[in-house]
Amino acid sequence: MRTQNATAYRFLTPYLLIFAIFWIWPIISSFLISFQATRTVPWRFAPAFNWGRLIGDPAFYNALKNTLLILVIQVPVMISLAIVMAVLLNSPLLKARGLYRFAFFAPVVVGEVAYSAVFRLMFSLDFGIVNKLLESVGLAKIDWFSNVTPAMALIMIAVTWRWAGYNAIIILAGLQSIPEDVYEAATLDRVSKLKQFFHITLPLLKPVIVFCAVLSIIGTMQLFTEPFLITERGGPGGGTETLGLLLYRQGFRSLNFGYASAVAYTMAGLAIAITLVQLWLTREPK
Amino acid sequence: MAAVTLTNVVKRFGVFEIVHGANIDIADGEFVVFVGPSGCGKSTLLRMIAGLEDISGGKIAIGGKVMNDVEAADRGIAMVFQSYALYPHMTVEQNLSFGLRMNGNPKADTERRVKRAAEILCIDELMQRRPKQLSGGQRQRVAIGRAIVREPQVFLFDEPLSNLDAELRVQMRVEISRLHKELGVTMIYVTHDQTEAMTLADRIVVLKAGNVEQIGAPLDLYDDPANRFVAGFIGSPKMNFIGAKVVETSNSAIIIELVNHGGARLRKPLRDAFPAIGAEIVLGVRPEHFFEAGEGDCDIPIKADVTEHLGSVSYVYANAGPEELIVEREASRQRAGSDHFTVSIKAERSLLFDKSGARIR
Description:
CATH architecture of chain A: Orthogonal Bundle
Oligomer: heterodimer
CATH class of chain A: Mainly Alpha
CATH architecture of the largest domain in chain B: 3-Layer(aba) Sandwich
Shape of chain B: elongated
Strand content of chain A: under 5%
Shape of chain A: globular
CATH superfamily of the largest domain in chain B: P-loop containing nucleotide triphosphate hydrolases
CATH class of the largest domain in chain B: Alpha Beta
Strand order of the largest sheet of chain A: 1-2
Number of domains of chain A: 1
Number of domains of chain B: 2
Largest interface: A-B, 18 and 23 residues
Structural class of chain A: mainly alpha
Radius of gyration of chain B: 24 Å
Number of strands of chain B: 21
Strand order of the largest sheet of chain B: 6-7-8-3-9-10
CATH topology of chain A: MetI-like fold
Structural class of chain B: alpha+beta
Helix content of chain B: 10-25%
Order of helices and strands of chain B: EEEHEEEHHHEHEHEEHHEEEEEEEEEEE
Strand content of chain B: 35-45%
Distance between the termini of chain A: 39 Å
Distance between the termini of chain B: 39 Å
Largest sheet of chain B: 6 strands, mixed
Order of helices and strands of chain A: HEEHHHHHHHHHHH
């Protein structure tokens, strides 16, 4: 058995080496870099330099506020929408189910740049279909890119469009694992479809919904593509700048790796903390 | 409590007809078992009575009222599912009371009903547990409890014991029998296990490929099956079917020759039909109806291939030509070694079937 294990590890060695060099070491290294002053060469060890700056940096608090705002509004809306989509997809009355399933999942496979470009066009002030539709029903057109509130709304709409179907497919798998006879028993118990949804479907879906929520929280904490590409690097005036964007600006525009590392560890720490709180709140009763 | 009447009930899934015009009268308070092999339509029939499947044709009445267009919840029935169908996220108590709570039943009445069901089924101790913390037998009790709480006119059981081990099955069988006596409510029970059917039923409905083959009391089906299918299905081990040919007829009996047993002959008195000389027929003999050589009307020598010793009796499996015979014999250690022996068939303990499987009386 031991010889077998040794052989297995020998086969695994190339992978483990690459994993250690390109995964483990960067994680440790960036943690160490977050304690170094990296704005001048040579870098020097200065524990309070980046972390001290972080605590007093208005740009950090702006990015944190924006990220948390998106998290608090977008994630619940998207998960709720995903549940509704999953229930509709699961309906025996639905025809061409495969087509819908593909359509809901398709946004994930569309290239990020392409989808961002299309969103920019759709929400353009004078030529976008969204403003045309608003005007056609007698509403004033919205300048989506120049005002903070519409710009934030646009980010949330885009992220929801991209990920709701993906979550719906995961929730659909959860729905399909609930045995049909539980519903039949409830029907015989004279429990209405609506009550069945709230008292049977939702509680039984809880583990899957928690899973989707955790994935979404982690994803939103790292949100970068949409504010970078759609609202043009967190515009207007930093109104949609997220922690991910702040990290990018500091790390790859200003080449201030120490501060970027501190932001990265803050993002990861927050994602873990929020997830733990959520897991605790939705824990199974003993 | 209520009688259940099925009149020409038909079920079609698309173009496929699954149940072909079932006519069954179930009296108030009766325990009726639908039995048959997989795919015979017994569960479909039960689900139609429950209202979980639409009725494609015919009528189903409960308590004299036609139920074809009545919602499942309003039919006054309760069902126990094969998989128990308990609500996994609720405690036993919540499982029992869920339907009543959701319908705004007064709290005191709900508590009374739950308490009564728990007492009847001895599950008082389990009330705060969840289904995954229960054994198979306990889950089954909770499923039955949930049915009792509804105080239905008719109980429906869909293969409720098939997920339990052999010992627990026997125990639950006795408990369901006791429950029927205690509640006195009409019960319809679906199973593929003829032993369950024989032990539980007041009357058995034997189904095959969507047709009702025979309805009758367990011993009536055992002693007087309508056809070869029922004869083979009821009784364990199953009845032996021995190929035969009519060699002589008179006005009250025929003489048949057992073609695979060296021309052994048996005189069989008949009442109604007399097959022609030369007609191929089948002689049915239950394993327990073979006698010692010379005690019956026709002796046949056989050679044992395998003997199963069950303690009280032994079953000898013998290949006689193309036919396998199963013979029940008194358990005996001396016999264990001897392969060749002769058994005897009594005319009055055997049945005749024609080639199509219909009974010849």
